[in-house]
Amino acid sequence: MARLSVNVNKIATLRNSRGGNNPDLIQVAKDCERFGARGITVHPRPDERHIRYQDVYDLKKIVTTEFNIEGNCQEQKFVDLVLAVKPEQVTLVPDALGQITSNHGWDTITHQQYLKDTIKIFADAGIRVSIFVDPVVEIVEAAATTGTHRIELYTEAYAHGYAANREEAIAPYVKAAEAAKRAGLGINAGHDLDLQNLKYFAENIPALDEVSIGHALISDALYYGLENTVQMYLRQLA
Ligand SMILES: CC(=O)[C@@H](O)[C@H](O)COP(=O)(O)O
Ligand SMILES: NCC(=O)COP(=O)(O)O
Fold first, then answer.
1. Structurally, how many domains does the chain consist of?
2. Residue 13 beta carbon below 6 angstroms from any ligand 2 atom
3. Which positions in this protein are listed as binding 3-amino-2-oxopropyl phosphate (predicted)?
4. 20 is in an annotated binding site
5. pTM as predicted
6. Which-ligand-closest: CA of 105?
7. Has the ipTM of the complex gone over 0.90?
8. pLDDT tens, 38-48?
9. What's the confidence (pLDDT) of residue 78?
């Protein structure tokens, strides 16, 4: 069964909207783990609009499952943060400054040397590295020669296409996952996964190691409560 890592960015968004500590990000992360999540994901952005750099240090002290930090390694501040915190996993995402959310994966062909050099820095520090990629076989094959341990398949296109034609939507992900497996890479996935589309994704990508889910899961928790919601997502992966 793929590991569920809860992305708590949106808890920080809500907290920051009032300037206090409600909701308490640390307590929510502890509770997600208590309710069955097997990882906590954060994506600190340079403007700290949701996760603040201090949150990352604070979370490191309490996460007992797997801590996954996502972000833009072209920001030296991000590299320094990850090396100081030493999470179990870092996920490299090619964000542009001011981007609302992640909207593309790494071009592992064009940026091969840059990725090799950067991944080595994290791998030498004992941190597992995953790189965020679009579901394109050539991109996955080129990822395999960067030294990364895993890829994270960017699932926005799948989530977007699911309702209209789920067979068509999953097809590139099946091919990309097969290429990753042939190359010996672990497979993570994330972005816009939800209670409607998660089960079909997991069923069709049997080698899936981990999903990180934030926006939909935290939104669902408003209706179902956090404990129920985490359990509902876990059932989609079972
Ligand atoms: C890489 C990825 O898909 C997620 O980390 C997503 O970008 C969440 O970031 P935001 O919460 O800032 O939208
Ligand atoms: N890596 C994807 C992630 O952490 C959460 O993405 P989303 O569920 O908030 O779209």
1. 1
2. no
3. 7, 18, 192, 214-215
4. no
5. 0.97
6. 1
7. yes
8. 999 999 999 99
9. 97
